[in-house]
Design brief:
The chain is an alpha/beta fold and about 425 residues long. The chain folds into two domains: about 5-340, TIM Barrel (Alpha-Beta Barrel); about 350-410, no CATH class. It has 13 helices and twelve strands. It has helices at about 25-40, 50-55, 65-75, 115-130, 160-180, 190-195, 205-210, 225, 230-250, 275-280, 325-340, 375-385, 400-405, and strands spanning about 5-10, 45, 80-90, 90, 95, 135-145, 215, 255-260, 290-295, 350-355, 390, 405-410. A seven-stranded parallel β-sheet has the order 6-3-2-1-9-8-7. Strands 11-10-12 form a three-stranded parallel β-sheet. Helix 10 links the parallel strand 8 (about 255-260) and strand 9 (about 290-295). It is globular and about 55 Å long. The two termini are about 30 Å apart.
């Protein structure tokens, strides 16, 4: 359960040249961005160096590229901001950044090819080695929703089994832990892991690997289409995902990091973004399992850049000119209240049972999607003022577990 104050931060999207800023890093521009972020009352940022720039050849890790990452971490520290560093980018805002040595004529499986995985592990070790002695560095995340490269809906999916997915996670997280034993090391994923039956990364992978479970909450993945703009289901979806992650965890009290959450257009009209942000965060403030919230994102993508999905130009708390938008001003207003809210759970929670055919393989997980009855029941109870839990079918007969989570009675489908 949360013992330290809730962490509040942003995913840092540079105001100048987006993530292409790594090509010719301008620390003056970065410093101005981070001054604006710190001015909103944030305590951390998450940064995204590009894999193809850090490791342009399988046996070449660019010293200059690593130095640029460290320079941004140090610039954040100078402004009182801690930094979490993603390793394999990978995938960002609809664009893929794979190095040439795993694509086209050199295409290899990024999860199972032994030489590729060995190179990924070496990059992980190098970053960990350089960051381990920096007190303002939080830890490593393997990559941004890297598992999407194994999704069946990807244009060029990498074939992967559930067992191979676990082996890949174990290898890379083990590399981070070997060099940086005290860092908070994680992996992250989109909703497919929680809801899509054939995805090789499963909820068990989410809660059994890494030091925290990460959650990325995007209402455009189903809940907005079903309930419509303005419905309270939209601002409660992040809380539902945190609860779902808690239900899957074999350890009560395992921390959950809401690593991405944002207010996408058109599902959230511009005038409603501050209210959506407020209600989303307020619904989470007292959740004991919540380690922190990292909003997506710091800055709008400038319209001088082409071919982005429209929503990417509107997701920031700050404009490209570093001026706070209404959502940024609202975040700054409520951050002190969020940090001051004590974690709390009621002692008589109704427990909604999620029955699965095979928990290890995730078979049956689609029943927990926003299209299913489980979410409907959870939402109805939450709107009625209850604090509903989700309980896996395998845990219903464990009174000690239910008591620890405050579950007084279980409701089966």
């Amino acid at each position: 359960m949360r013992a330290d104050p809730l962490r509040l931060g942003v995913n840092y999207t540079p105001s100048q040249n987006w993530f292409h800023h790594w090509l010719d890093l301008d620390l003056g521009a970065v410093g101005a961005d981070l001054d604006a972020v710190a001015g909103l009352g944030m305590d951390h940022v998450r940064i995204f160096p590009l894999w193809n720039l850090l490791q342009p050849n399988r046996t070449l890790i660019r010293t200059r590229g690593i130095d640029d990452v460290l320079a941004v971490v140090d610039a954040a520290a100078a402004r009182g901001l801690d930094t979490a560093v993603d390793v394999l980018q990978g995938h960002l805002s609809s664009f893929d950044f794979l190095p040439a040595w795993v694509s086209t004529w050199h295409r290899r499986n990024v999860f199972t090819d032994h030489e590729v995985v060995a190179a990924q592990a070496e990059l992980t070790r190098v970053l960990a080695r350089e960051l381990v002695d920096r007190p303002h560095a939080i830890g490593l995340t393997l990559g941004n929703e890297f598992g999407q490269f194994a999704a069946s809906r990807h244009p060029e999916p990498n074939e992967l089994t559930v067992q191979q997915a676990g082996a890949w996670l174990g290898t890379l997280l083990g590399a981070a832990r070997q060099v940086w034993p005290d860092g908070l090391h994680t992996h992250c994923f989109d909703d497919d892991l929680w809801f899509v039956e054939d995805h090789p990364f499963t909820p068990r992978h989410a809660v059994e690997h890494g030091d925290m479970t990460t959650v990325h909450s995007w209402i455009f993945t189903g809940v907005a289409d079903r309930y419509g703009a303005g419905h309270p289901a939209l601002s409660l979806f992040a809380a539902y995902l945190v609860e779902l992650a808690t239900a899957w965890s074999p350890q009560t009290g395992r921390p959950v990091w809401l690593q991405e959450v944002g207010a996408p257009a058109p599902q959230v009209p511009a005038a409603e973004v501050p209210g959506f942000l407020d209600s989303t965060l307020t619904a989470l403030a007292s959740v004991p399992e919540l380690w922190g919230v990292t909003w997506w994102c710091s800055h709008d993508v400038t319209r001088a850049l082409a071919d982005f999905p429209e929503l990417e130009h509107t997701l920031g708390l700050l404009g490209p000119d570093n001026r706070p938008k209404p959502a940024g001003e609202r975040f700054a207003e409520i951050a002190p209240r969020m940090r001051a809210t004590a974690p709390a759970r009621s002692a008589d929670r109704p427990g909604l049972v999620l029955e699965l055919e095979d928990e290890a393989a995730g078979i049956g997980r689609s029943r927990s999607s926003p299209a299913g009855d489980l979410f409907d029941r959870w939402l109805a109870l939450r709107l009625a003022g209850a604090d509903p839990a989700i309980v896996l079918g395998s845990r219903v007969g464990d009174p000690s577990y239910l008591s620890t989570r405050g579950v007084a009675s279980c409701i089966r489908p």
